Amino acid sequence: MWSEKHRPKSLELVVGNEEGRERLLQWLRKWKQGAKAALLVGPPGTGKTTCVHLAAEKLGMQLVELNASDTRTKEKLSKRIGEVIHSASLFGGRSLVFLDEVDGLAGRADYGAIDFIRDAVRTSQNPVVMAANDPDSDEVRKLSSVTSRIEFVKPDQEAVERFLAAIAEEEGRPVEEGGLAAMAKAANGDLRSAVNLLQSGATYEKDEEVSVAQAINGFFGAYDEKAALKALRSYPGPPRDKVRDLFTGVVKSRVNEERKAAALEVLSRADVLMGRIMRGKDWRLLRYLDPMLASELWRALGDGGASYSMDGAPWPLQLRIWNDSKKLKEIGLLAGRRTGTSQKGFLVEDMPYLLLLCGDAGFRDALVASLALEEPFSAFIAKEAARPRKLS
Predict the structure, then answer these.
(1) Number of CB atoms found within 10 A of residue 380's CB
(2) Residue 129 DSSP SS3
(3) What is the number of alpha carbons within 13 Å of residue 189 lying toward its C-beta?
């Protein structure tokens, strides 16, 4: 992959985030035992992981890295980094512990990952750096007492375009006039996405710019799967935003509930696929996203009825709706296991009654303790229990 081949070889060659890079380097140089961990926050593709690797190399530190969202239990974390956390190097140097994607940690209390990380930071004999894409996640908030935040932002479009031009020249890849600018714009500050677009040989019509609404509504109104796929590939932004905007259109649509549920199931699997891509940085999997959506989502929606508009509920509200559905699914999975019921069966048949019973604080507290749910779930259940309900 060109994104790996052309990864910067020194901190000075990283595109953008000069202040963030310098703050990370100075923090590492001044680190003393007992100091807080550094937490790099910013969108995907802004150079957080690259800067950690290059800073460790520059300072001659041994890097111990793991993806926190893939190593979510206290036991797994302890096995992977426990020794380096509590021991100094035999040769007098320091190791650098890097926990990537800490905003992807699991939500259940019995995992113990957050508590382990907090204790590890306070007692570590080596500096700890973490990275997160979502600065407002519950996991990042819980780690705020032991972290110092360093912000990473999207590089400007001109810087991305210059970066692409250098790669195109080195690879001997001819690009039509205006093509690099179009790729830089479509990547929306995500350097990995920009390089992947360049490597894929995607072409752009300079005089045919498509808006988000045009691309999404082109998909919803497509007459066949081929037209649906073409509309998806014209989307002028990162893949994760594409899934988000399709979700917004489906949620607000007037299609019947059965088809809407089927469409949301497809989008749920698309979200899982994006999570795998982001965690493993396996950009080759992106080739499956649009064909899957063009085939399965377009077919699930049937004869139309969905549309997209920038008006209506703001994205933060839509995100809360999405996150609430994920919380309900996790509760349904845990409670279903406890009662010998499938997740779907529990959500459909039992969840309305469970939430009604949770109007009683004592029952709610007993449920939270029984399922070992964390504080955000308790607050969510209390909020849902307070909603007026009609049970048929």
Answers:
(1) 16
(2) strand
(3) 13
* Contact present, 152 and 42 (Cβ < 8 Å): yes
- For the chain, the maximum distance between any two Cα atoms, rounded to a whole number of angstroms, is 71
Phi, psi of 292 (to 5 degrees): -65, -45
What does the alpha-carbon distance between residue 38 and residue 129 come to, in Å, rounded to a whole number? 5
Under 8 Å CB-to-CB from 262, ≥6 apart: which residues?
300
Torsion angle (degrees, nearest 10) of CA 196, 202, 206, 209: -80
Reference 112, options 123, 120, 101, 100; nearest CA is: 120
SS3 at position 100 = strand
pLDDT in tens, 99-113: 887 876 655 444 577
How far is CA 188 from its chain centroid? 15
The pTM of the full predicted model, rounded to 2 decimals, is 0.51
Which value, to the nearest 10 degrees, does the dihedral of the CA atoms of residues 293, 298, 299, 300 take? Answer: 90
Distance of CA 71 to the CA centre of its chain: 16
Written as one letter, the residue type at 376 is: P
Q: Which residues pair with 149 in a beta bridge?
A: 39
368, pLDDT greater than 60: yes
